[in-house]
Design brief:
There is one protein chain. The protein has about 200 residues and is an all-alpha fold. The protein is built from nine helices and two strands. Strands 1-2 form a two-stranded antiparallel ribbon. Strand 1 and strand 2 form a beta hairpin. It is globular and about 50 Å long. The chain starts with a helix and ends in a 5-residue tail after the last helix. InterPro entries: DUF6624.
């Protein structure tokens, strides 16, 4: 490990992110739009990650160890208010995968997440959304579910159907009540307004 201090900081920042998330779940404040307190944590972590990337490149295993590299990935996954950072991180990871240890699963998740926010189909089926009836479904995929599941298996991931079952069970615990149809419509309008403000979409 070349940068133990950076490694420690990344792990601490991930832990704080997850503590705040759990607290907001406990208080019933996490769902129903992007919570401002959660966004503040994400932005602070993201801005620091940008500085780290400028200093050492993508924090890969060789630079900071596996745990801290995973922490960096979580931070960039949560940097949803900063499209330029997420895209530059993806490009940097792709650039460095020939010379550093870059987990292809993390590349798949980040690529799909960017595609979702930009209204493009995802390739690996890692992102899920609620439909108009409030049911959790895979976000739009690039081709058939069979082909997506083949790509997932190559990465060691379970099928979309299995992952959907896992997430549905998780949400039933975390989300105390299901939003009404009117609340979902309002959330969708707020979500699109937020994406325009962040720069993910232009219309």
């Amino acid at each position: 490990m070349l940068y133990p201090d950076i490694a420690h900081e990344l792990i601490e920042r991930r832990a704080y992110d997850l503590r705040v998330r759990q607290q907001l779940i406990t208080e019933g404040k996490l769902f129903g739009g992007y919570n401002p307190e959660m966004e503040t944590v994400h932005l602070d972590n993201a801005r620091r990650l940008r500085e780290i990337m400028a200093q050492i490149g993508w924090p890969a295993q060789e630079q900071v160890g596996e745990d801290a590299s995973q922490a960096a990935w979580l931070i960039v996954q949560h940097a949803i208010s900063l499209p330029s950072l997420m895209k530059s991180a993806l490009a940097l990871m792709n650039e460095q995968k020939k010379t550093r240890t870059i987990d292809p699963v993390r590349l798949a998740f980040l690529s799909d997440r960017i595609a979702m926010y930009e209204n493009r189909p995802q390739s690996y089926g890692t992102q899920f959304v609620h439909d108009d009836q409030g049911q959790l479904i895979p976000y739009s995929i690039a081709d058939s579910i069979d082909h997506v599941n083949q790509r997932r298996r190559k990465l060691g991931l379970n099928t979309i159907e299995e992952r959907l079952s896992e997430l549905t069970a998780q949400l039933s615990v975390e989300q105390k009540k299901q939003p009404t149809a009117e609340e979902r419509q309002l959330e969708r309008a707020e979500y699109d307004a937020w994406r325009r403000k962040a720069g993910w979409i232009s219309t």
